[in-house]
Amino acid sequence: QVRTAAAPPAARDRHAELAELIEEANWRYYVLDSPTVSDAEYDAWMREIRELEERYPDLRTPDSPTQKVGGAISTEFTPVTHLRRLESLDNAFSDEDLAAWHARIQRLYGADVGPFLCELKIDGLAVALVYENGRLVRAATRGDGRTGEDITPNIRTIRNVPHRLTGDGVPSLLEVRGEVFLPVEGFRRLNEQLLDAGKQPFANPRNAAAGSVRQKDPRVTAQRPLKMIVHGVGVWEGGDPPESQSAVYERLRELGLPVSERYRVVEDLGGIREYIAYYREHRHDPEYEIDGVVAKVDRIAVQRALGSTSRAPRWAIAFKYPPEEVTTKLLDIQVGV
Ligand code: NAD
């Protein structure tokens, strides 16, 4: 039997220091919409804390940032308990990480898990929408995954979010998840306006979107050119839920929900690699900012069999491109000046 050593004091101290840095960054990012460190720096902290916990598993306590989704929620909004937990995504930063994920799920499932649905990882704000008998009744931020913030009046102001679902076979209860984002062009204009008014500009489109949605006054939200794209379902009751992620998207589109035009279904790992390579070169083609690609097992039955860890589904992976944010963000702000 392999016994792992208890963490020495230096490792314990570094772990505590990283946990504190990450919690502080989470609060600034998720609650204040105003981060003070770059995503790359944040990701490096997360990687370091994960490595420490792999080496010394006694550091992996349930309150570690590696075991949780997102951050705290603000008291400015009414808390909402999600119908089903909203999750985060595990990351791959290299082709080896991606191949290791693929090998792991093949082994766990014991057969071929393909095909896969590839799509863009939109750098926006994660939101869940609830439709009862086709009517939008609630919208909430992800929060810590179990409890989010009620932002229904704000989401109702977003033009491509339907208040009523259309078409045949409307489910009696539907909970969809997606990203709310500010198109890059809208972000530029908003920052120009803020600078003209002598106000602080937003650091990037993601924070601008989050700051615009999380307004006490929905009239402010209404003036921001926000959009949403849905990329998942939490609950589907009635009206025959489809059996693959791609079929789900096509049904959601028929129901009037905004679904990406850029997703592709590929057969195998090679197909995922091609999609990643394509968008590495075409990163700025979409109207929104992306920070990577998400690959998902397409068959829902296989997704179910693979299940989730405490914070993320095993059947999906976010491949993150190396950051280019430092230069583009500085440029954006200079353009605003
Ligand atoms: P994540 O952003 O790495 O991935 C999970 C999220 O991706 C999901 O909740 C989902 O809403 C979103 N997503 C976008 N497109 C998607 C798609 N097509 N399919 C499925 N999901 C999609 O993880 P996270 O837990 O939301 O946040 C962690 C990340 O946030 C960090 O890696 C970092 O980049 C950033 N962050 C930065 C700071 C900071 O201070 N700079 C602080 C906290 C978090």
From TrEMBL:
<feature type="active site" description="N6-AMP-lysine intermediate">
    <location>
        <position position="121"/>
    </location>
</feature>
<feature type="binding site">
    <location>
        <begin position="39"/>
        <end position="43"/>
    </location>
    <ligand>
        <name>NAD(+)</name>
    </ligand>
</feature>
<feature type="binding site">
    <location>
        <position position="179"/>
    </location>
    <ligand>
        <name>NAD(+)</name>
    </ligand>
</feature>
<feature type="binding site">
    <location>
        <position position="142"/>
    </location>
    <ligand>
        <name>NAD(+)</name>
    </ligand>
</feature>
<feature type="binding site">
    <location>
        <position position="320"/>
    </location>
    <ligand>
        <name>NAD(+)</name>
    </ligand>
</feature>
<feature type="binding site">
    <location>
        <position position="119"/>
    </location>
    <ligand>
        <name>NAD(+)</name>
    </ligand>
</feature>
<feature type="binding site">
    <location>
        <begin position="88"/>
        <end position="89"/>
    </location>
    <ligand>
        <name>NAD(+)</name>
    </ligand>
</feature>
<protein>
    <recommendedName>
        <fullName>DNA ligase</fullName>
    </recommendedName>
</protein>
<comment type="function">
    <text>DNA ligase that catalyzes the formation of phosphodiester linkages between 5'-phosphoryl and 3'-hydroxyl groups in double-stranded DNA using NAD as a coenzyme and as the energy source for the reaction. It is essential for DNA replication and repair of damaged DNA.</text>
</comment>
<feature type="binding site">
    <location>
        <position position="296"/>
    </location>
    <ligand>
        <name>NAD(+)</name>
    </ligand>
</feature>
<comment type="similarity">
    <text>Belongs to the NAD-dependent DNA ligase family. LigA subfamily.</text>
</comment>
